[in-house]
Amino acid sequence: MKIKNINGTSQYTCRCGSWIEHWEKFSGQRALYCAGIGCMEMNPIGAHVQKADGYDSNWYIVPLCNKHNLGGGELEIPDGTALVSANRTETCGN
To answer: Structurally, how many domains does the chain consist of?
Structure first.
């Protein structure tokens, strides 16, 4: 699946403590590595992304390393990677 990073979202926060904690809580998984295919960077952060197909304008959180979080363009992640909604009213409530 291809995603694209949404730049300029660092001011957004949620009740979970951090966006990576938000992803872990609502995906039911542990974020050990960056989701970028072939990337083995540990300790990812919760990055705001959109699906690159253009049909879905929703914002999601996925675990990415700093390099991929700051990178532009599209990034390939495994199809099974959980896309957790970044819409706080749908998830953590604020």
So the answer is: 1
* pLDDT higher than 70, residue 94: no
Q: Using CB atoms within 10 Å of the CB of residue 47, give its burial: 0 to 12 exposed, 13 to 18 middle, 19+ buried.
A: buried
Domain range enclosing 69 = 2-90
Strand order in the sheet with 84-85: 74-76, 2-5, 45-51, 60-64, 84-85
DSSP 88: G
pLDDT band at 42 (very low <50, low <70, confident <90, very high): very high
pLDDT the model gives residue 12? 87
